[in-house]
Structures are given as structure tokens and as C-alpha cells.
């Protein structure tokens, strides 16, 4: 009895890992599903782009408000811009992207594959000699990764712009100082780090959603459960992975000297 | 054309629950076999094991020298190209219309041009009586139509083995009769090996060359149609004649008391054996035998009135 408490989650983790490897192998196997990839990428863009933009504005604004207040007490207002850029590009961008890719795209993927599973469509596909991991999952995972990188750029731009507007309009910051300090703390590597994070988060979100969807069981309720579990597991994983990536990044890339 | 499927010592469990144990049978090449069994005896599980969707716990399934139960995944996808499978509700892809559904295997596996694909798809759609419904979505049509569309998709790659899961569930008797005739005609035409899973007695009595009966976690009997229809084995006789008297109860198996109380009751006499359906164009099938041939060869006296031309339909009163 006590053993199953350990083996249960271990089995899920192992299954998820094996599935991820299968998907990676399938990504490089011909024929490439270009059509499916483009359709899925477009679909993911349509469900995520508006909420991402809407989330990015307050994200940038909150950072501007917090940092702006704090930094004023130190008398370092001229660095407000650089602090906002650093926070948005390094953390807020990838995290906001991840939440939306997991919440909007991941849940859609889990629901889609889950309902195909319970309608025996996946079985039918396998029986027709087509591997659903290669035909359906690999293009979805790739699409999610590509769109996540794109969304990350969107969050960066909209977030920084939002911070700028709030700093200038509400906190009486000077536009020139805000823009001039952009590169004081942030560096090019931060941008790459954000991109890599978005790529990893897109991968994880799509893998978890596909895995849960493809293993849905027990009728329509099973699909609902799969979607729910996919979103919860993805969120948990993303924040853990984000911590490790940040920790590694801070070790590898020294902060910019002033 | 048509390949043999050799199943040996097949056992399937879900956890500790045994579904069936030690199933051994051979589906003869080019013949039609029916797998019968009370609800919940794992007929569909058996069918899914044959195509490698479920891994059996023990035993082997040999098709053209490849053991489905233990071969690699790549081999499995290769061997599945020999199969056509009709799932219970058709398992059509919900996001595509019927035409794209039927064309799907051709587009994925062949280099046929769109006009060639169109020709094959229309031919199969016509065969199952769905001409004119190509552009309907699976959600917009009835269960019977979905089933027929599923059959068209299963046929499109010219399969060597056709597995059919409950063709008659959800179909009206007239359509069931048509679809049964269609199976016979198809078998004469493409000479594939058929396995039909069903619990429709009329189908079981008139369509197949061979009948198998799954009951109480094992294969009770498998053999030529006339062998099972003339069998006095209680389970077989009860099921094939849809009676209450016999070892099969409401909950899978009657309890010992009930059986003891029934021990004195004699099984009612077997009804006459109907003639097997024949191809409508008179073309002979590979598995076809003269009515009564098996009984004569094995010295079994069939129930009176058997094999009379009038007994073709309405076998079960």
C-alpha cells in the first residue's frame, strides 16, 4: 500500500519522460508533417496572442510601479528603465508566455487529443499504420515551441512599452532617462536566455498536454480530468524548471558591471 | 490474397483480472470467422490484441511469420498495413469530412494523385452505399452511416485481413442483412480473411465459415460453422440459440445452486441449421462449402429441416 504512493507518481514521471523521448525521435523522422505543423502553429497563435498581449501590459506596469517606488527611495530613478527591462526580459517574458502556452494552448491540445483518444480515433490511426506521436504530437510540440518563442518576444516588447508608459505617465519619470538606461543592466545574453526559456517551456507544456491527452481514459469525464491534470502538472513543472534555468544562467553569465 | 492468423496460447489480464486465458485458434486464410461471446467476455479486447493495440500477457499471434505480440513497434506499423479494421462506432476522424476520412490512408501511404484517390474513394463510398454523403462531417450523420463510412475507410487499402467489431450494433435489421450480404460479397471479391466480432445470433448463424465462442475467460469452442451449430455442448447450444436454459446467466455465470436446479432440465432440441449466405453474383468464395458437408464428413446428423433452401433467413425464432 505504502509502496504505491511512491511508485504511482514515479510511473507517471517515467511515462512522461519516455513519451518526451519518443516525441523527440519522431520529430526527426520522415515524413515531416509540415501542413499539420503550420495549422497547429496558427491555431496556437490565435488562442494565445490576444491574452498574451493583455497579460503583458499589466505585467510590465506592475514591475514599473514596484521597481519605480523602490528605486526612488534609493535615489536611483535613472535606472528605472534598466530594472524594468531586466525583469521583463529575464523572468516576466518567459513566465507569462509559459502560463499562456500552458493554459490556452496546452489545454486545447490535451482536450483535442483526449477526445480523439476516447472516440478511438487514435486507435484507428495506429491501425491504419500511422503513428499518432509522429503524425499529431510531434508537429504540435514543435508548433508550441515556435509560438512560445514568438510570444516571448511579444511579451518583451509589450511589457517594456507598458512599463515605459506607466513610468512616464504615472510616476513622472523622464522618457529619456528610462530609454537611456535600457542597456545599463540588461545584456544581450538575457534576451537569448529568455528565448531558450520560452523554447523549453513550450516544449514542456506541449509534451505534458499531449501525454495527458493521449492517455485519457474513462469517457468524456476522462478528457476533462486530462485537461485539468495537464495544466496543473505543466504549471508546477514550469516554475521548477524556471528556477533551475535561472540558477544555471546566473552561474554561467556574470552580471554586467556598471 | 488473404493471410492466415495463427493465435497460440494467448492470455490477457488487466491487473490481476484475467480477461481470457490460453486462447488458441487459427483464422484460415480467406475465410470468414465470427467471434461470439456474452457481453463483457473480452471480444473487443481480443480484436484489439490481434492488431497490437493491446499487448497480451502470454502467447503469440503469427501473421506471415511475424509475432504481433512480441515484434518491434516499427514491424507492428508495417504489418498493420495488411489490416482493415472497422471499429464499433466507426472511429471516424471528427475534424475531417467522410471523403477525407476515406482518403486518409491513401494520402498517407501511397503516392497516388488526387484524381486516382478520388476514383478509389468514390468506388468504396459507392460500395457501402454512401455516394452523395462525401462532404458530411462524422458528427452530422447517423451511427449506421458512420459504421458504413468506417467500412469504406477499412477497405480502401485493399486489406488482407479485415477485423470488424460489432457491425450490427445500432443498425436496423434490414441494414444488418445488407451489411452481412456485403461481407460475403466482399470476401468473394477481395478474398481477405475476415474476423467479425458480434453477438447477433442471426449474423453468427448465416454469415461465417467458422465460429468461435468466448465464454468464462476461455475459448469454449472454435471450428466450422456446422460443427458449432450442431453442437450439443450446453454453452454453445445455449448461446447460439439465445436461450435462458444453460450455464450462462445474467451475471456472466450462474451460481452453483441455480445450475443444480437446472440439471434435470433438458436442453431444448436444436433448431435446423440455416444455409450460409452466398455471394450475390454467384462467384464462389474460397471458404465456401456445400451445405451439410462438414456434418456428412464427420458423421454428425444435423437437426431435422437443416439446409433447406427456405431456411436461409430467420434462423432464430
Write the layout of secondary structure elements.
The complex is a heterodimer of chains A (258) and B (317).
Chain A: H1 2-27, H2 34-74, H3 80-118, H4 121-127, H5 132-170, H6 175-180, H7 182-185, H8 188-214, H9 219-252
Helix pairs in contact in A: 1-5, 2-3, 2-5, 3-5, 3-8, 3-9, 5-8, 8-9
Chain B: E1 5-14, E2 17-27, E3 32-36, H1 43-50, E4 58-63, E5 66-67, H2 73-79, E6 83-86, H3 98-109, H4 114-127, H5 143-155, E7 161-165, H6 173-190, E8 193-197, H7 201-206, E9 210-215, E10 218-224, H8 225-229, H9 234-240, H10 256-262, H11 293-297
Parallel strand pairs in B: 3-8, 3-9, 6-7, 7-8
Antiparallel strand pairs in B: 1-2, 1-4, 4-5, 9-10
Helix pairs in contact in B: 3-4, 3-5, 4-5
Summarize this structure briefly:
Chain A has helices at residues 2-27, 34-74, 80-118, 121-127, 132-170, 175-180, 182-185, 188-214, 219-252. Chain A is an all-alpha fold and 258 residues long.
Work out the strand percent of chain B. 15-25%
Q: Which structural class best describes the helix and strand composition of chain B?
A: alpha/beta
Number-wise, the strands of chain A total 0
Radius of gyration of chain A: 21 Å
Topology order of chain A in helix (H) and strand (E) letters = HHHHHHHHH
The N- and C-terminal alpha carbons of chain B lie at a distance of 38 Å
Number of domains of chain A: 1
Largest sheet of chain B: 6 strands, mixed
Average residue-wise pLDDT of chain A: 87
Helicity of chain B, as a percent range: 25-40%
Largest interface: A-B, 15 and 24 residues
Architecture overview:
- The complex is a heterodimer of chains A (258) and B (317).
- Chain A has 258 residues and is mostly helical.
- In chain A, helix 2 packs antiparallel against helix 3.
- The model of chain A has no long low-confidence stretch (mean pLDDT 87).
- The relative contact order of chain B is 0.15.
- At the A-B interface, helix 4 of A face helix 2 and helix 3 of B.
Amino acid at each position: 500500500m505504502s509502496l504505491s504512493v511512491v511508485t504511482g507518481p514515479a510511473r507517471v514521471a517515467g511515462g512522461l519522460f519516455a513519451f518526451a523521448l519518443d516525441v523527440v525521435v519522431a520529430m526527426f523522422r520522415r515524413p515531416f508533417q509540415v501542413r499539420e505543423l503550420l495549422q497547429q502553429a496558427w491555431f496556437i497563435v490565435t488562442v494565445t496572442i490576444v491574452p498574451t498581449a493583455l497579460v503583458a501590459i499589466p505585467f510590465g506596469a506592475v514591475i514599473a510601479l514596484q521597481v519605480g517606488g523602490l528605486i526612488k527611495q534609493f535615489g536611483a530613478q535613472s535606472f528605472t528603465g534598466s530594472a524594468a527591462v531586466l525583469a521583463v526580459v529575464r523572468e516576466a517574458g518567459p513566465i507569462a508566455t509559459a502560463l499562456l502556452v500552458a493554459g490556452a494552448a496546452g489545454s486545447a491540445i490535451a482536450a483535442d487529443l483526449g477526445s480523439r483518444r476516447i472516440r478511438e480515433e487514435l486507435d484507428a490511426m495506429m491501425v491504419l499504420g500511422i503513428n499518432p506521436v509522429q503524425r499529431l504530437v510531434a508537429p504540435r510540440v514543435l508548433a508550441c515551441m515556435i509560438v512560445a518563442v514568438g510570444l516571448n518576444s511579444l511579451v518583451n516588447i509589450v511589457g517594456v512599452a507598458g512599463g515605459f508608459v506607466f513610468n512616464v505617465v504615472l510616476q513622472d519619470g523622464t522618457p529619456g532617462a528610462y530609454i537611456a538606461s535600457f542597456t545599463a543592466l540588461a545584456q544581450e545574453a538575457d534576451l537569448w536566455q529568455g528565448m531558450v526559456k520560452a523554447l523549453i517551456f513550450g516544449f514542456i507544456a506541449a509534451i505534458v498536454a499531449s501525454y495527458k491527452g493521449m492517455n485519457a481514459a474513462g469517457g468524456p469525464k476522462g478528457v476533462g480530468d486530462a485537461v485539468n491534470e495537464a495544466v496543473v502538472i505543466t504549471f508546477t513543472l514550469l516554475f521548477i524548471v524556471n528556477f533551475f534555468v535561472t540558477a544555471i544562467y546566473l552561474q554561467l553569465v556574470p552580471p554586467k558591471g556598471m | 490474397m488473404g493471410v492466415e492468423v495463427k493465435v497460440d496460447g494467448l492470455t490477457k489480464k488487466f491487473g490481476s483480472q484475467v480477461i481470457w486465458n490460453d486462447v488458441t485458434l487459427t483464422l484460415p486464410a480467406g475465410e470468414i470467422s465470427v467471434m461470439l461471446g456474452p457481453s463483457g467476455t473480452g471480444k473487443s479486447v481480443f480484436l484489439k490484441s490481434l492488431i497490437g493495440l493491446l499487448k497480451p500477457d502470454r502467447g503469440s499471434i503469427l501473421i506471415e511469420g511475424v509475432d504481433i505480440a512480441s515484434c518491434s513497434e516499427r514491424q507492428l506499423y508495417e504489418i498493420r498495413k495488411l489490416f482493415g479494421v472497422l471499429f464499433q462506432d466507426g472511429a471516424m476522424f471528427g475534424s475531417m469530412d467522410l471523403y477525407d476520412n476515406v482518403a486518409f490512408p491513401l494520402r498517407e501511404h501511397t503516392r497516388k494523385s488526387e484524381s486516382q484517390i478520388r476514383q478509389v474513394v468514390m468506388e468504396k463510398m459507392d460500395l457501402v452505399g454512401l455516394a452523395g454523403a462525401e462532404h458530411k462531417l462524422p458528427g452530422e450523420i447517423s451511427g449506421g452511416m458512420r459504421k458504413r463510412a468506417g467500412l469504406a475507410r477499412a477497405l480502401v487499402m485493399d486489406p488482407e485481413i479485415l477485423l470488424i467489431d460489432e457491425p450490427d450494433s445500432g443498425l436496423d435489421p434490414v441494414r444488418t442483412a445488407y451489411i452481412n450480404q456485403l461481407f460475403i460479397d466482399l470476401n468473394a471479391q477481395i478474398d481477405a480473411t475476415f474476423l467479425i466480432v458480434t453477438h447477433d445470433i442471426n449474423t453468427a448463424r448465416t454469415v461465417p465459415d467458422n465460429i468461435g465462442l468466448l465464454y468464462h475467460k476461455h475459448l469454449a469452442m472454435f471450428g466450422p460453422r456446422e460443427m458449432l451449430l450442431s453442437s450439443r455442448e450446453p454453452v454453445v447450444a445455449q448461446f447460439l440459440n439465445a436461450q435462458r436454459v444453460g450455464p450462462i446467466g445474467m451475471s456472466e455465470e450462474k451460481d452453483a445452486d441455480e445450475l443444480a436446479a437446472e440439471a434435470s432440465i433438458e436442453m431444448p432440441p436444436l433448431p435446423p441449421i440455416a444455409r450460409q449466405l452466398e455471394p450475390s453474383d454467384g462467384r464462389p468464395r474460397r471458404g465456401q462449402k456445400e451445405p451439410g458437408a462438414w456434418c456428412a464428413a464427420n458423421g454428425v446428423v444435423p437437426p431435422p429441416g437443416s439446409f433447406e433452401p427456405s431456411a436461409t433467413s430467420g434462423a432464430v425464432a
